[in-house]
Structure to design on (265 residues):
């Protein structure tokens, strides 16, 4: 059992948590660790857990599933040590380190459906919002996501919690340049649309029964990547309301696209 917060291994876990190890990600909490354990493509490296996790059937089952990952090393630690690496105020007695999932245009291309609907996060800097966007992307049946240079890390602890496992399942392409996104979409005949409060066309006027990419920008700044050429769309709102939460906005449009495409859930 690790009992010291100053243990070198514990320091290395903090480095992963803080984003200082670019090839690794930090996953915390029972629910997210269950999601990781259920995915054979997630390469789990280290698991740190407290003894109290073995006091519940759910905790015992989780540890058994994690032990099935041949690459995973399970280590017991005190609650005080778990608290020292937690990214949340109240830790749930477990955290793990995994290899960062593979991302990129090539992986996204091999994973998307014949009728793709891609969400592009353009400069979204709030990780909680970014995670919620990925959750809405998966929930609505969209096929993948792209984040531009300047968008927050989609695999940071806060973004992972916001996505509730969706970022581990969705094919994504991170840190993409605007010009590369435009070329990638053009090569696949994917039409590009962006949400902008000043647009004249509304999101319900679009025929979403064709390959499409939907670009959404940061709250307060809106869509900045004008070099990602495409149609501009707005969501009608009462005059007193200037904007919607970015995740709410993307969810509204994605479910309209799902409705038009006749998706069944």
């Amino acid at each position: 059992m690790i009992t010291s917060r100053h243990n070198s291994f514990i320091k290395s876990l903090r480095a992963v948590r803080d984003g200082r190890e670019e090839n690794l990600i930090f996953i915390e909490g029972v629910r997210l660790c269950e999601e990781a354990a259920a995915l054979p493509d997630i390469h789990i490296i280290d698991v740190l857990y407290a003894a109290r996790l073995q006091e519940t059937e759910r905790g015992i089952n989780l540890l058994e599933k994690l032990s099935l990952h041949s690459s995973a090393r399970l280590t017991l630690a005190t609650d005080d040590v778990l608290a020292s690496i937690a990214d949340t105020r109240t830790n749930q007695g477990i955290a793990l380190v995994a290899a960062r999932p593979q991302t990129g245009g090539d992986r996204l291309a091999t994973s998307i459906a014949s009728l793709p609907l891609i969400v592009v996060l353009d400069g979204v800097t709030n990780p909680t919002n970014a995670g919620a966007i990925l959750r809405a992307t998966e929930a609505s049946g969209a096929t993948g996501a792209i984040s531009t240079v300047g968008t927050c890390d989609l695999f940071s602890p806060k973004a992972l919690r916001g996505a509730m496992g969706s970022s581990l399942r969705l094919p994504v392409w991170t840190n993409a340049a605007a010009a590369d996104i435009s070329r990638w979409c053009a090569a696949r005949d994917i039409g590009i649309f962006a949400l902008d409060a000043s647009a004249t066309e509304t999101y319900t006027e679009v025929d979403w029964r064709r390959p499409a990419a939907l670009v959404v920008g940061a709250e307060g700044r809106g869509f900045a990547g004008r070099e990602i050429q495409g149609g501009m769309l707005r969501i009608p709102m009462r005059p007193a309301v200037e904007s919607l939460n970015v995740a709410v906005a993307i969810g509204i449009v994605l479910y309209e696209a799902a409705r038009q495409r006749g998706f069944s859930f």
